[in-house]
Structures are given as C-alpha cells and as structure tokens.
Amino acid sequence: MPFCGRTAVLLLLALAGQSAWAQAPLIPPAAPLSAPATPPPVLPDGRGLLPPASVSPPLPAPVPAPGLPDLPLAAPPAPPLAPAPTRLRARLPLPAHRLVLPAVSRVAERQVLYGRSAQGRALTMFVLDNGAPDTANVTLIFGGFHGNERSTPGVIERLRRFLKQTPAAWPRRRVLLVPYANPDGWALGTRTNGRDVDINRNFPAGWREAARAARYSPGPHAASEPETQAIIALLARYHPAKIVSLHSPLHCLNWTGDLGRAMAYAMTADNHLPVKGDIGYPTPGSLGDYCGAHGIGIVTLEFAGENADDAWQENRAAFVAVINLRPFAEPREVSKE
Description:
By secondary structure, this protein is an alpha/beta fold.
C-alpha cells in the first residue's frame, strides 16, 4: 500500500477511536479501600465477644418545607428546676384584713405560798399585776372558804384566765386570787377545816365560843386555826383595799363598811343581785367582821347554786366593776332593800 493510503487509513482509525471514547460513560474514580476489619476477639474457650456498638452517623440537617420561612429550631425544653428549700421561699405579706396579731399581755402573774392548812396542805394565792399597778387599789378575792360550796374555786379559775386574756379591761390594777382558803374542807367535802372548825367564825373580831351548830364551830379560841392565821398575815402583807369572799347559795351581795356598800352597789349594776347589809343571822368571828374592824371594804358574794359556769357568766362583769372601783368612791343611790 502506498504511503498516502496507509496514512489515510491510520487517520480514519484514530478518528473512529476518539468518537467511541467520547460516547462511552464516565467511570467514577474508585473509592479508597478501607482498612480490613479486625476480627472480633475470641475467648480461650472459643466463644466470641460481642463486637463494639456501631456509631450511628449524624442526622442530616432538617430542610424547611417549601413556602415556609426558615425559622430557627426551638431548643429542647430544659429540665425542671428542683424546688427551693422551704426556708428560702419568699412569702408575700397578707392583706391587712387577714393579719392576725397575737395578743400582747401586760399581765404579770406569780404564785405565792402564804401558809399551810391544819392537815399540811398548801395555801396558795395568785398575784396578778396589770402594768404598773396602783398598790392603793388592790382587790383580793377568796374562794373555797367552805369545802361544801363547790362552785367557788371554779369561778376563781375562770376569773384568773379572763384577767390574763383581757388586760385592757382592768388597767393598772393588782388582783389577788385565793382559790382554796380551806383546802382541807375541800378535800373532805365539809364546811369546816381538817379540825372541824369553821374558819369563817374563827377570826378575832366578835369571836364567841358558843355556836349554833357543830358545823359553825368557832374553834377553841380566836385565830386558833392555821388557815385563819395565814389570812391575817396575808392581809397585813398585801394591804388589800377591797375583798370579795365567794359563797353559796343565798344569791345576794352582803356588804360590811362604807366601802363594802359602794362595792356591792357597783356589782349589782351588772349582776342584779339584791344588796344586803345584814345576812339575816349573826356571824361572830367572820372574815366580814374582821375586815370591818380594820377598815377594809368587803362584800360576800353568794351564788345561787353550785354550777361554776352559771355563776361565772352571771358575775363576770360584776368582777370587772369591783376591780376597777376606786377605794373611796361614793355609792350610787338605790332603793334600800
């Protein structure tokens, strides 16, 4: 074949190969070979260990839906906070109409042992001072003079609680409370003391040896009984201006002396009991006679019966009135009984 013919044939073959190469699909480069996997370890007894957990590939970023704005993704909710300790929690103030303030009591109370009974029982008295008391206006109230008059110590206890809870009702006053003037008689349930003597006939004022009945026994001599002696010493020590002696069941106010009369009228304005200057029978050697002889105002308050609740409700306001009464106030004019 001449040279030009061979050249033409070679040229045609080259052009045909170039056209075939251009029409063939491109082959992507091979991915790099990964390192051969390490076989899982084998225990000596031939058991294979579990392969390590595979790591999940990261999730693709979310693609917003078409037509919606590309909003930032919300952060996952934070775990709830643990509640603060109770002592650190702030408390809002209550409204004014809901504030409840504790009552501030100005009453100072002390218990005094002023003697012993015939059988050795304690003779006790409660001294209540409201603020700086006016010591010229001291009120002494006796209960339990006769052990068979059972309501009087209970009324004394109710009065004691009332005075401590309501200091505004009796400002600048001193009150002395004796719940059991005759504790032996209370324990025995008798009018007389542990030696069968009526201590309300044993005071050294008009004392007489004769007696109408055994239950009125005045004792071998005036002030023979330890209860009587202790009361006389108590009066000398505390100097009460006013005394109220609780008894039952005559239901009246029996007064002795001018101040006693003023006290009775102050009390009857509230309890509406009849006022009497004479109880209706002689009482030689009584506490009333002794106080009258020493210028101390005294009222014997006789309850209607032995129910302490009824007696307290009937006489609560009368107690407050006599405690606040000035020692030398003039009595109010009322019709004479």
